[in-house]
Amino acid sequence: MLAVHFDQPGGPENLYLKEVAKPSPGEGEVLLKVAASALNRADILQRQGQYAPPPGASSILGIEASGHVAELGPGCQGHWKIGDPAMALLSGGGQAQYATVPEGLLMPIPAGLTLPQAAAIPEAWLTAFQLLHLVGNVQAGDSVLIHAGASGVGTAAIQLARIAGAIPLVTVGSQDKLQMAEKLGAAAGFNYKEEDFSEATMKFTKGAGVNLILDCIGGSYWEKNVNCLALDGRWVLYGLMGGADVSGPLFSKLLFKRGSLVTSLLRSRDKKYKQMLVKAFTEQIVPHFSMEGPQRLLPVLDRVYPVAEIQEAHKYMESNKHMGKIVLELPQ
User: What's the DSSP call for residue 315?
Assistant: First the structure.
């Protein structure tokens, strides 16, 4: 089968398609014939040599995919049949023509969605769902500040916060991204290149601050985050795009707010946790992708590339110009 490959860590120019052995499904696993796989920051970091896949995971890039069930491994419980369309959360291996998946990490493709749209759901939407509900304990009426509001996770978090009855606010880096976030249901958006998002957030919340912050930036935003956090607010850190270092009185400011700083990742979690997350998401959220009206959810796709253009896809993600997800289509 064809798979995205790189011989040594580095830039997008190191990526190419290589003929590799097709994997075989192990105990309780399904072989997915991959139609599409979405790009994530994890793919960029892994290509740069900064993010090793978890122990036992495929070294091939790609942590979410959609396609059809091609084979059932021994011990499968019988939920899936050969030929069923499915989308999958992976710990690696998605950017190839076939990938193995524990059967509990497969989800049905919502009616009315294409395979590329479905490929844009698993990692981004499960991350947003996990951050809001399992880690951030979002409540109706909460104000939620979502950094990188036009990203895959950001566009999912806006919509999930909205249907949970919360008030989503976002930071973005352009006017186009601002308009898109508001169209998805953000109550307000702040262009961090043009204004101080912390001051703007305090103004919007009439001085109260936000109850919850979803933060993939880290270091460079710490002071503004803590300044616009409400008393007893929760600040959930899930990425370090703005660096890992903090210098200054973070603890005293956080203590003064009685704030909680919690960190979370999804890829490194164990199979049992991921299966619980996938089950909850499948039951509570997946039906909303096929609904009509204000409760409807929509994966946001920016561009779809044939997998042969993998270098271009990585360059485009690194330009930070995209809104929503970048998807790769695999040859069928």
Answer: H
Radius of gyration of the chain (CA): 20
Give the pLDDT of residue 127: 95
Q: How far is CA 120 from the centre of its chain?
A: 9
Q: What mean pLDDT comes out for the span 223-237? A: 96
User: Are the beta carbons of 99 and 23 closer than 8 angstroms?
Assistant: yes
Whether pLDDT at 219 is above 90? no
Tell me the three state secondary structure of residue 330.
coil
Interval 293-313: pLDDT, tens? 888 999 999 999 999 999 999
In angstroms, the Cα distances linking 65 to 123, 142, 158, 204 are: 9, 32, 22, 38
Closest-CA residue to 179 (of 219, 146, 150): 150
Structure tokens, 163:
């249907």
**177 φψ region: left (φ > 0), alpha (ψ -120 to 50), beta (else):** alpha
Average pLDDT of the segment spanning 142-167: 96
Can you tell me the distance from the alpha carbon of 56 to that of 185, in angstroms, rounded to the nearest whole number?
39
Token couple for 148? 């990188």
Q: Are 236 and 157 in contact (CB under 8 A)?
A: no
Q: How far apart are CA 166 and CA 143, in angstroms?
A: 6
Give the residue ranges of DSSP H helices in the chain. 41-47, 115-119, 122-129, 152-163, 175-184, 197-204, 222-227, 250-256, 271-284, 310-318
- The CATH H-level superfamily of 2-121+268-329 is Medium-chain alcohol dehydrogenases, catalytic domain (3.90.180.10)
- DSSP for 109-157, please give it: PPTT--HHHHHTSHHHHHHHHIIIIIIS---TT-EEEESSTTSHHHHHH
Domain ranges in the chain? 2-121+268-329, 125-263
User: Which residues neighbour 312 within 8 Å (Cβ) at sequence distance 6 or greater?
Assistant: 12, 305
The CA distance from 172 to 158, in Å, is 12
Q: Hey, what CATH class is 125-263 in?
A: alpha beta
